[in-house]
Design goal:
Strand order of the largest sheet: 12-11-10-13
Strand content: 15-25%
Length: about 325
C-alpha cells in the first residue's frame, strides 16, 4: 500500500492525505432557507470530557465552559436527495469523482467482485479498500446505486465537497463547538445525546457496530451499513442520527491542544492545519477499538478525503 494511504488515528476513516491547506474558508452565512432546520439558543455549555473512556491524545479534554451565539442547524445530515438537487443545479463533481476512486468498507463489497474491484487496502486497517468508481452516486463501487437510498445521508463527500454544498445553499459547516452543543441536546456532560447508558432499557439509539469488528456485525441496532437520516429517535433538540451512522465534518482545522489557549466565546479552531475535525462516529465504530461515538469524542481527516462513512450537516446564522 502506498504511504499516502494511512489512518490518521486508530479510528474508522482513512484519508488520501494530499493536503489542501488552502481549502475554502467558511464565513458567517444567513441567506439559506431554514426549512428542515431547528433554531438553537446558544449560551453556555460544558464542552469536552475528562472521562477515562476518552482518547487524551485526541484533545477531548479538559472540560471547559463555552459560550455560543444562537444558530440554526439541520435536523438531519444532508441526504442523497438533497445532494442530488445540488449537483443537478450546479453540475458539481465531487473529489471522489475527480480522483476516480474512494474508500469502501470491505464488508460491503460482494465477495465475487472483491478481486476485480479492490485496487489496494489500507495498511493496518485492511478493511478499508480503494475502489475505482466509488462515489456518492455509487457508494460501494460502479455497479451500486443510491436509487433506494435517497433518504440516507450522502456519503463519499470530502470536506471541500461539503463546503461547496454549504456555499450553494447559503449555509456553512458547524464549528466543532456548535456541533457538540447541538449533539448534547441540552444534557450536560453525558456520554451520548440521550444520557450515559449506550442502550437504555436494551434499546439501540444509534447505528454502530455490534459483534466482532471487523469480521462480524450482528446489526442488533437494525443496520449493517448507513441507515436513513432519521432512523433513530431525535435528541433533546430534535436532531436525528447525530451519533453513529456517519461521521460529520466540522468547519475547524484539527489540533489536539489548540483549545487549551483558544477563545471560549464562539471558538472556531486553529487558523490553519492539515486535517479537519470530524465528530459523531459511524456505523463502523465499536467500543473495542473506536468508541468515538461519544459526543465529546473527535477525530480528523484531510479535507480531500472521502469514504463510505463520512457525511455532514449544515448550520446557518441568524
Amino acid at each position: 500500500m502506498p504511504p499516502d494511504h494511512q489512518l490518521p488515528s486508530p479510528c474508522c476513516s482513512p484519508h488520501r492525505f494530499s493536503i489542501h491547506s488552502d481549502s475554502l474558508a467558511l464565513s458567517r452565512s444567513s441567506s439559506g432557507s431554514t426549512a428542515g432546520m431547528v433554531k438553537l439558543d446558544g449560551g453556555e455549555f460544558l464542552m469536552g470530557t475528562d472521562s477515562r473512556e476518552g482518547f487524551p491524545n485526541d484533545g477531548e479534554g479538559p472540560v471547559r465552559k463555552i459560550t455560543l451565539d444562537p444558530f440554526y442547524i439541520d435536523i438531519c445530515p444532508v441526504t442523497n436527495a438533497q445532494f442530488q438537487e445540488f449537483v443537478s443545479a450546479t453540475g458539481y463533481r465531487t473529489e471522489a469523482e475527480r480522483f476516480g476512486w474512494s474508500f469502501v468498507f470491505e464488508g460491503h463489497i460482494p465477495q465475487e467482485c472483491y478481486d476485480e474491484l479492490v485496487e489496494a487496502t489500507v495498511s493496518g486497517a485492511e478493511w478499508w479498500c480503494k475502489i475505482s468508481g466509488a462515489d456518492w452516486r455509487h457508494p460501494e463501487g460502479p455497479d451500486s446505486t443510491i436509487d433506494a437510498r435517497l433518504s440516507n445521508p450522502v456519503l463519499h463527500v470530502s470536506w471541500n465537497d461539503a463546503a461547496e454544498f454549504c456555499r450553494w445553499s447559503g449555509k456553512r459547516l458547524p464549528t466543532e463547538a456548535e456541533w457538540e452543543y447541538a449533539a448534547r441536546g441540552g444534557l450536560e456532560q453525558k456520554n451520548y445525546p440521550w444520557g450515559d447508558d449506550l442502550t437504555p432499557g436494551g434499546q439501540h439509539l444509534c447505528n454502530i457496530w455490534q459483534g466482532d469488528f471487523p469480521e462480524l456485525d450482528l446489526a442488533e441496532d437494525g443496520y449493517s451499513a448507513v441507515a436513513p437520516a432519521d432512523a433513530f429517535p431525535p435528541n433533546g433538540y430534535g436532531l436525528y442520527t447525530i451519533t453513529g451512522n456517519a461521521w460529520e465534518w466540522c468547519a475547524d482545522w484539527f489540533h489536539p491542544a489548540y483549545h487549551l489557549a483558544a477563545s471560549r466565546q464562539n471558538p472556531t479552531g486553529p487558523p490553519r492545519g492539515d486535517t479537519r475535525v470530524m465528530k459523531g462516529g459511524s456505523y463502523l465504530c465499536h467500543r473495542s477499538y473506536c468508541n468515538r461515538y461519544r459526543v465529546a469524542a473527535r477525530t480528523s481527516n484531510s479535507p480531500d478525503s472521502s469514504t463510505t462513512n463520512i457525511s455532514f450537516r449544515c448550520v446557518r446564522d441568524l
